[in-house]
Amino acid sequence: MAQPFPIIGIDFGTTNSVIAILEPDGSSRTAQFGPEQLSVFRSVLCFWAEAARGRSEIHSAAGPAAIEAYLDDPLDSRLIMSMKSYLAQRSFTQTTLFNRAVTLEQLIAIFLRALLQAAGLDVSKARIVAGRPVRFVGETADDAFGDERLRAAFAAAGMAAIDVAFEPEAAGYRFARGLSRPSNVLIGDFGGGTSDFSIVRFDQGRVTPIATTGIGIAGDAFDFRIIDQVISPRLGKGDTYRPGNTDLPVPPEYFAAFARWHRLSLMKAPRMLRDIREVAACSRHPERLGGLVQLIEDEMGYQLYQVVSAAKAALSRAEETVLSFHHKDIAIDAVITRQDFEGWISAELQLLAGVIDRALAMGGMQASDIDHVFLTGGTSFVPAVQRLFTQRFGAEKVSSGGEFVSVAEGLALIGRDRLG
């Protein structure tokens, strides 16, 4: 018997969001966005104020339109990124947008409504299954609190009755259902902000969760390592300046903003730029800090991160690549080897290895008890990440696929099976 309504899986991600639709007739599809018909929608919002009828009205855009609006007017707009990362942080309750207080739940609700509108979906008669990480981002993350606020955000967006499922279980759901014999499957789901792991038991059509765990590091942390090692030193990090008779290090806080590309715009204040120029004037390499000033003034953070992300992807295919970034007086053509990159991310790799071991311990299992490993998410293609699994479980057990859409598709399938 066909289900009487569509089932929609919503993978609200730190960096990108994806929607999968399971129609009543059993057919399935992934929502497509924009003229390029992309399956992913950037998880960002941009707000700006305009005067109308004697008062200030706040406008917003989401996804790619938000990035365009921000780049058009970065000083008089506000870009909101990585909203999901704050869900489990009790210290973050609201922010102020043009003198108006807005809660995190309201921000996410605004984004979710825009996401559904961009997908052309009416969810009033649909069953919604939303994904959540096993462990939310942050050292002080309260996972139960994060789950509560995630549900509240969906309710504020008009989706009060939703199911919630762990993202790694959803990521491997289709894979596990395709197995022909009872198996233990370890699933690794690598997002932009979190890496989550689940062990599930597949037996006679049933998928039973055994262990779930995760950590708040993923692809964004790898990008920052490239920035820190390749870009920042060429813009003055590690240099010295001599305001008097003593050499002093260039203030490292100049480069903290590189953790997120849009934070560079926060440095575009006259006082900050004046400080950097004064330090540059008596530094050993004034042209480096001069390049930093150009980068900030011309709002080139987004373009820089696109180059860094492309270099990271290239290192998954080749032993070395050239990171090339040119803007005015900035000329960076740096050869990066895979060996260098793996050394830079070694601390993150050790943390990921520990989480894999923790998943096995939680399930009371040894590596030999795992029959299959399924990996998804862009970071799963990094060779050093792949080795964490092939060395433990054997290359013959490791599979990957659906790096962007597998979670959303699995969420829709979980919704169908829960109905049954």
| Helix fraction by DSSP (H/I, runs of at least 4) | 25-40%
Structural class: alpha+beta
Number of helices: 13
Could you name the CATH topology of the domain at 7-178 and 402-419? Nucleotidyltransferase, domain 5
Radius of gyration: 23 Å
Describe the structure.
- By secondary structure, the protein is an alpha+beta fold.
- It has a domain at 7-178 and 402-419: Nucleotidyltransferase, domain 5, CATH 3.30.420.
- The protein has 13 helices and 20 strands.
- The strands form six sheets. Strands 1, 2, 3, 4, 10 and 11 form a six-stranded mixed sheet that branches. It has a five-stranded mixed sheet with strand order 14-13-12-19-20. A three-stranded antiparallel sheet has the order 6-5-7.
- A hairpin with a 2-residue loop joins strand 8 (94-97) and strand 9.
- Helix 6 (219-231) packs across helix 9 (301-314).
- The longest helix is centred in the last third of the chain and has 17 residues, at 346-362.
- The termini are close together.
- The relative contact order is 0.14.
- The mean pLDDT is 90.
Please describe the structure with a list of short key phrases separated by commas or semicolons:
single chain, alpha+beta, Nucleotidyltransferase, domain 5, 5-stranded mixed β-sheet, 13 helices, globular
